[in-house]
Amino acid sequence: MHDVYNFVAGPLVWVAFIVFFGGWLFRLIRMFSLINKKEPFIYTYMSWKYSFRSIFRWMIPFATTNWRRKPVLTIVTFAFHICLIITPIFLLAHIILFDEAWNISWWSLPEGWADVMTLIVIGCCIYFLVRRLKSPEVQFVTYPSDYIILAIVAAPFITGFLAYHQWINYQLMLILHILAGEIMLMAIPFTRLSHMIFSPFTRAYMGSEFGGVRHTRDW
Amino acid sequence: MKKAAILVSLVLTVSTLLWVTAWSQEDIVVLDASAFENSQRPPSVFVHEEHNEKAEIEDCNACHHVYDDEGKLVEDESSEDQLCSDCHGLDAEGRQPGLMKAFHVNCKGCHLEQKKGPIMCGECHQRG
Lengths: 219, 128
Known about the structure:
The structure holds two protein chains of two kinds.
Chain A (H helix, E strand, L loop, with lengths): L1 H7 L2 H28 L9 H11 L6 H5 L1 H19 L2 H11 L8 H24 L1 H4 L4 H22 L4 H18 L7 H19 L6
Helix pairs in contact in A: 2-10, 3-11, 5-7, 7-9, 9-10
Chain B lengths: L1 H23 L23 H8 L28 H4 L11 H16 L6 H4 L4
């Protein structure tokens, strides 16, 4: 078990983070080079003011018509994304591993909070799954891969929850948890999860086009 | 009457069994975590004698080390008459790690070197 753990918690972590940040950079470089090649004219109306106006507006729950139109989805979406990002970054066990490896540490969530936030992520994933299966307008834009992507996101949290409580086989669960996290990180730049990279740019573009060209709001 | 006798002996047997298992819990020793103010995990399982027998450790200072003021390990001296928390405060001081990290590095560090023993969080911090 030592060898397997040391491999997934050592070299594979490096691979995952290099692919994650490298992929992030690659997608950005490619996006800008595509703009420059095909649509450089968008720079004539891209605006910092309208960009940030749109980004901030859409970051506030219920501040846009679309957020108000589907209140349950809005709450689930915000709860999901906040917990998804905050929990792993401020998880005590993760920080301890960073501290042991690089001698750096930062504030951590009380474990009870992290536990609840993990359950929120899992619950939201179930909501997204049911919505994808039941809602016709979502079905219409669903590829089979979307279910796999949802599973990729849910897996680190389900295995992390089970490992934390030491239910079922702890050692196996922890190794699966680390693997699942690495798979998720590596999938982000190359799947629909890349909205993590692109969403600020999408908003910036929409904000600028609506603000500068159509002279209206994009919310 | 016979029924009652069976019932009584059954209760006695079960309670004896329970008592014996409860008693044998005393063998399981955990590290003294009383210095921690707000423990997030159960204290680490550690059976001193069994561990040292299994790991074939004879020198106390394999774990109970002494470092001098310059942060150098003092060979041939040991600190088993002190608490870990006598030196290691909750926070790191210079190169001296805080208590939690000292435990982690001391135990897990050796287990990694020896390629034996627990190295995952929950292998030591076991939930009941």
